[in-house]
Amino acid sequence: MTVVTVFRSRLRDGVDEAYAEVAEEMSRLVRVLDGFIDEKFYLSPDGERVTIVRFRDAASQREWARYPEHLVAQRRGLDEFYAWYDISVSDETYARSFASGDSPG
Questions:
Q1: Contacts of 32 (CB under 8 A, 6+ apart)
Q2: For the chain, what are the domain ranges?
Q3: CATH class for domain 3-87?
Q4: pLDDT tens sequence across 62-73
Q5: CB 56 within 8 A of CB 35
Q6: Strand-pair partners of 87
């Protein structure tokens, strides 16, 4: 069963550049993990950041949660980057997709 991680956060002032470097590296690493499906990132007008990551199963999601470089990034997030965050991990109980012929994907 697909597992969905939703990570919402707000950054501290002045950390955007350093955070971007770490976030880019985490994106690169998670994409090569067995069980990774996809990742999307959104920034709301009020500054809240949302990352959605889907994994094939709970074991794949847990592997990412415990991945050594990710653990270091998590620690930096607490110590340096985040003013606030909220994370939820859920089993996907229903999914449906549609794409018209001219849809970009």
A1: none
A2: 3-87
A3: alpha beta
A4: 999 999 999 999
A5: yes
A6: 7
